[in-house]
Design brief:
The complex is a heterodimer of chains A (248) and B (546).
Chain A (H helix, E strand, L loop, with lengths): L1 E5 L8 H14 L4 E5 L5 H5 L9 H7 L9 E2 L5 E4 L8 H6 L7 H6 L8 E5 L6 H9 L2 E6 L3 H16 L7 E5 L7 H8 L17 H4 L1 H4 L3 H4 L4 H18 L1
Parallel strand pairs in A: 1-5, 1-6, 2-4, 2-5, 6-7
Antiparallel strand pairs in A: 3-4
Helix pairs in contact in A: 1-12
Chain B lengths: L9 H8 L3 E4 L6 H8 L4 E4 L3 E10 L3 H4 L2 E8 L2 E8 L6 E7 L15 H10 L4 E17 L5 E13 L7 E11 L4 H13 L3 E2 L4 H8 L21 H25 L3 H20 L6 H29 L1 H7 L9 H22 L2 H15 L15 H21 L7 H21 L5 H40 L5 H33 L1 H11 L12
Antiparallel strand pairs in B: 1-9, 1-10, 2-7, 3-4, 3-7, 4-5, 5-6, 7-8, 8-9
Helix pairs in contact in B: 7-8, 7-12, 8-9, 8-14, 9-11, 13-14, 13-17, 14-15, 15-16
Classes of the chains: A alpha/beta (248), B alpha+beta (546).
């Protein structure tokens, strides 16, 4: 089992679209795949037509009074399951704090799935918090969708610094350019000459596109309603790249 | 076609949680009639019908089947997927798969690195996969939807035929409906299952692959190189020996075509093992065949052993080539590749030579005459020394004698003994091993197993010692020939030199281990076991075995 998180401190950079579309790619190849929607907004759950509701809330889930497996639901796609979000996840940090080794709880919760799933995708809420620290520990790879703007680049540095401080393995950090708009001069210049501090930068970038926005209308991954569109082809390429990275 | 994918062993376990229910559609009902009734109760969304071609594979010796599994190569539109089709009860059907590129499925090593490949390779090793049968199915996929169009169950309706291979006769299979629950949504599936049951559809748990194998005339497990021969202790020895020889001849014939084809090295291997066993039986089980006949076949099978040997040596080299390469320091690994090319060329050459031998009049005559001889009924008034003795007595006598010889020779070996002493011992161990295997059905299986275990461990050691030596010698010969053919850059020769050193070290290790292994084999309990089984007056159990 490989745990892949879509994460960024910044909101609105396309974390959910990344997690959902890449999980869709993995499942289509026949890999047993789980998406865990950790964001109380529940966007990933929405895309899969699943109510963002966990009976008893996140507290019960973290305390481990019930098997995590009981909350998992099958999606419209074979091999692809979802652990839905719940609005109570906004208090996730508090639930986590009340346990021993608070930074390792997510990892502990995922352990029973070692043989069950090939890939677990974590769709993370923005911010840097105890929840995100749990994600950093649990994940084998941290995908950082990065819009090619100055501000977005700054947030990468913040994450990188945090990793170094906490002695986490920075090799897990896999930034890639997302929502790239080649009509914008700034986007073009950053893409063409990416700054050196973006270590581990993936080759593939995902263009800004209305198809990705339309996921909310179709309530499905891009490949389902626009199988030959550019963003879909880019997600396919991105998945091949990510898969190779996590296989190492 | 997309490149390849990480495979999913886990999907197997996952599939178990959501158990599908399979129904056979009775002849008087059509799929459309069933659907017409279902839509009155549930919301269905149909996808266009697709043709799915499913080809099932196993190795010639049924290695997958023996492990309760068959590999399925499924072509569904443009997507091609390899699936792990489990045959074991409680975990039936498909689970775990891998998308593959266009190349035909042959060897595990051709697949990209993945859990799927590892799992497959652990079972089939170096053997080639062969297509067993092909099912062509018209498949209709339907989703059962809830109010917000979320899929809450799946239905598959299949109309299919099976054939042994492209172009052979197609047999119709009964139409089936499969209800597949979606995790976390049990109720809709339960509802559909009860609706189908109400329409008088019967569930089936029989595996479509097993049914199909029988339909196209395959008998799973009909080949094995093992000597699973049942002998009657009171049988005349001359007859029993013919039965053994007949079984060995069958193995040779079964592997003839594969050996000619030459893609899967194990055909030749099994072919050669049967030759060696035959030769061993000819020389070890004395006094059961007329002298003249015996001499002729000894000579002819020696010839057959000889002409099949060079190719096998090269096969062995090439099969372990990667291990050799990896035993070198990383910087030297690329340098050894010219040796691989050289070996591949030699392999091609030797394979052609072998095909010629197998096509020769000498070979044909040998096989024909031998078969005829084995089919003849034995002479009731045989004057041969052991001809009419019960096989049980002769078997014990031969095994005991060979065993004592092994012990005698082994005890005489010390640190100063020449390599030849170990080689001779190795040969006698092999004779002993074959004798025990020929006659194992006369004795209690459990006792034989214990004896063989210690013997195998000793043989392994002696075999290693011998193999390393042979490899060193042949490597030296190869390097000379490569130089003569100007196919050896200096770096390659140096790398080969390092290989030789490594092999010599390993040979020395085997030599050092010998005395411990032999001690284990020759220890008192084991000796007593041999003695009880083969020397002391026989105690026959209820099952008629010693």
């Amino acid at each position: 089992m490989k745990v892949i998180a879509a994460y960024n401190i910044k909101g609105g950079v396309g974390k959910t679209a990344t997690a959902v579309n890449l999980a869709y790619q993995a499942a289509r190849e026949g890999a047993a795949t789980l998406v865990w929607d950790l964001d109380p907004q529940g966007a990933a759950s929405y895309y899969f037509r699943i109510k963002p509701k966990i009976k008893g809330g996140g507290k019960r889930l973290v305390r481990g009074q019930r098997d995590l497996d009981d909350f998992i639901l099958g999606t419209d796609f074979e091999c692809l399951d979802l652990l839905p979000a719940d609005f109570s996840y906004r208090n996730m940090d508090i639930f986590l704090e009340h346990s021993e080794k608070p930074a390792r709880q997510l990892r502990r919760l995922l352990r029973p799935f070692e043989d069950e799933y090939d890939y677990v995708f974590l769709d993370c809420p923005p911010s840097i918090s105890l929840t995100s620290e749990n994600v950093f520990v649990a994940a084998d790879a941290l995908l950082l969708p990065t819009i090619p703007t100055t501000l977005s680049l700054r947030t990468f540095k913040q994450v990188d610094k945090f990793f170094k401080q906490e002695q986490l393995d920075t090799i897990k950090l896999l930034p890639f350019f997302n929502m790239v708009d080649r009509r914008k001069q700034l986007h073009r210049s950053i893409i063409d000459a990416p700054p050196d501090q973006l270590t581990g930068l993936l080759q593939t970038h995902i263009p800004y596109s209305s198809e990705v926005e339309r996921m909310g209308v179709h309530r499905a991954p891009v490949g389902e309603f626009a199988p030959r569109s550019r963003p879909e082809l880019c997600y396919q390429a991105l998945w091949q790249e990510v898969k190779k990275k996590v296989a190492k | 076609m997309k490149s390849t994918i990480m495979a999913t062993v886990s999907a197997a376990r996952r599939a178990k949680q959501t158990v599908s229910t399979e129904f056979l559609i009775p002849g008087q009902l059509s799929a459309d009639q069933i659907l017409a009734q279902l839509v009155q109760h549930v919301r269905l969304s149909a996808e266009p019908a697709r043709t799915v071609r499913r080809t099932f594979y196993d190795t010639f010796d049924w290695r997958l089947y023996a492990n309760d599994v068959i590999i399925e190569d499924r072509q569904d539109g443009k997507q091609r997927t390899l699936l792990w089709h489990s045959l074991s009860i409680g975990n039936k059907g498909n689970n775990g798969g891998q998308t593959v590129s266009a190349a035909p499925l042959r060897f595990a090593k051709d697949l990209p690195a993945s859990q799927f490949r590892d799992r497959l390779e652990a079972i089939i090793e170096m053997r080639e996969l062969m297509p067993l049968l092909q099912i062509t199915a018209q498949v209709r996929w339907l989703r059962v939807l809830d109010k917000i169009d979320k899929t809450v169950a799946r239905l598959v309706i299949e109309t299919s035929t099976v054939r042994r291979r492209q172009g052979s006769k197609a047999h119709p299979l009964p139409d089936r409906v499969v209800v597949m629950p979606v995790k976390g949504y049990q109720k809709p599936s339960v509802k559909i299952v009860s609706l189908l049951a109400a329409m008088d559809l019967a569930t089936t748990s029989e595996d479509v692959v097993l049914t199909s194998l029988a339909l196209v005339g395959h008998t799973p497990g009909d080949y094995s190189s093992r000597l699973d021969l049942q002998l009657d202790p009171s049988m005349r020895s001359d007859q029993a020996v013919r039965n053994i020889m007949q079984r060995l001849l069958d193995v040779m014939l079964a592997n003839e075509n594969g050996t000619r084809k030459g893609t899967d090295t194990e055909f030749l291997h099994d072919f050669r093992v049967a030759i060696r066993r035959t030769r061993s039986a000819l020389s070890q089980i004395k006094g059961v065949m007329p002298e003249r006949t015996l001499n002729r076949y000894k000579q002819e099978f020696a010839w057959l052993g000889q002409v099949t040997s060079p190719l096998r040596d090269l096969d062995v080299y090439l099969l372990s080539f990667d291990d050799y390469r990896d035993s070198l320091p990383e910087s030297e690994r690329a340098n050894i590749e010219p040796l691989r090319d050289f070996l591949l060329r030699q392999q091609q050459r030797e394979h052609n030579a072998l095909k010629k031998s197998l096509g020769s009049a000498r070979y044909r005559r040998l096989m024909q005459d031998w078969r005829k001889f084995l089919k003849q009924s034995v002479n009731k008034n045989s004057t041969l020394k052991n001809g009419s003795r019960p096989i049980f007595d002769l078997a014990r006598e031969r095994i005991w004698k060979t065993y004592r010889r092994v012990i005698r020779e082994g005890e005489a070996i010390d640190a100063g003994s020449p390599a030849e002493a170990l080689h001779d011992l190795r040969k006698n161990c092999k004779k002993l091993r074959y004798l025990i295997e020929f006659f194992q059905s006369l004795f209690a299986a459990k006792k034989i197993k214990t004896l063989l275990k210690t013997l195998k461990s000793l043989q392994e050691n002696l075999g290693d010692f011998q193999d390393y030596e042979v490899q060193v010698t042949t490597l030296k010969q190869f390097s000379q020939r490569m130089v003569a053919e100007e196919a050896a850059p200096t770096e390659t020769l140096l790398a080969m030199g390092m290989l030789i050193e490594g092999l010599e070290r390993r040979q020395q290790q085997a030599r050092d281990e010998f005395s411990d292994r032999f001690k284990q084999f020759a220890q008192a309990d084991n000796r007593a076991r041999f003695q009880n089984l083969f020397a002391l007056p026989a105690v026959i159990n209820k099952d008629g075995k010693a």
